[in-house]
Amino acid sequence: MLPSPSPKILAPKILSPRTLAALAALTALLGACQTRAPATTGSLYPIDYRARHPIALTDASRSLDVFVTGTGHIDPRQAADIDAFLLEFRRYGRGTLVLDMPRGVAPAVGAAVERTGAAIRRMGAESGVGPGQFVVTNYLATSPNLVAPLRLSFQRMEAKVASQCGLWPQDLGVGDAAFSGRNEPHWNLGCATQTNIAAQVADPIDLVRGRPEGRIDTIRRTKNIEKVRNGNDPSIPWRQDGKADVKSQLSQ
């Protein structure tokens, strides 16, 4: 038998610098032909409505329009509105209380505007608003024939939704199959609920932390402890007109 030829070992071919430069240039040209946008990463879609529409504490303006009635007197309805507005200013107001009075109104209304403004300032002084807290300014009425009210305003902290309601960035129908297939809540879901909650909160700080416990009713607590020690029910029975107490009816 003839001996088998030994395998031939091929040495790696070393490319010249000129060849390497040509390959690099060709690779760059081929990469420039790529039309697909580069992949980017971003934040995840917020599923929770509280993350999409958070309630924020903001510094906002509160205002009340007082309309001129009759010869410039304040009727009972507007007097109650002004009293409630002044009470809110004393509790939560910041800075000064501004009274903006119209100018450029009809001559017959001008005197009534002055009397209404004087009545408002008098009500403010009677409710505890000091002279340094009351600022009177003027604004030009757009037309003498339009009703131009006197406007009270001040700054206070309010709770508001940081985002804008009524936005629909995705199609809820078949137009956006990718979004519909993920079965995710749409962007506007929960915005109205968050807005209503923010509008109903009297003190925005309640959204940040709870209130401390108030003073205990020592007399009531002592009586309840005595009832428990004597084996009696410490709860309070409540009654309806002409009927037995509701608690006894429920136990039957």
CATH architecture of the largest domain: 2-Layer Sandwich
Global shape: flat
Helix content: 25-40%
> What would you report as the Rg, rounded to the nearest angstrom?
38 Å
Sketch the major β-sheet. Answer: 4 strands, mixed
Structural summary, described in words:
The chain is α+β, with helices and mostly antiparallel strands and 252 residues long. The protein has two domains: 46-209, OmpA-like domain (60s Ribosomal Protein L30, Chain: A, 2-Layer Sandwich); 218-245, no CATH class. The chain has eight helices and four strands, in the order ααβαβαββαααα. It has helices at residues 17-32, 49-52, 76-92, 107-126, 177-182, 191-200, 218-229, 246-251; strands spanning 55-66, 94-103, 134-140, 150-161. The protein has a four-stranded mixed sheet. The chain starts with 16 loop residues before the first helix and ends with a helix. The mean pLDDT is 83.
How is this structure best summarized?
The chain is of the alpha+beta class. The protein contains 8 helices and 4 strands, in the order ααβαβαββαααα.
Secondary structure elements and their pairing?
Layout: H1 17-32, H2 49-52, E1 55-66, H3 76-92, E2 94-103, H4 107-126, E3 134-140, E4 150-161, H5 177-182, H6 191-200, H7 218-229, H8 246-251
Parallel strand pairs: 2-3
Antiparallel strand pairs: 1-4, 2-4
List keywords for this structure.
2 domains; 252 residues; 60s Ribosomal Protein L30, Chain: A; 16% strand; alpha+beta; 4-stranded mixed beta sheet
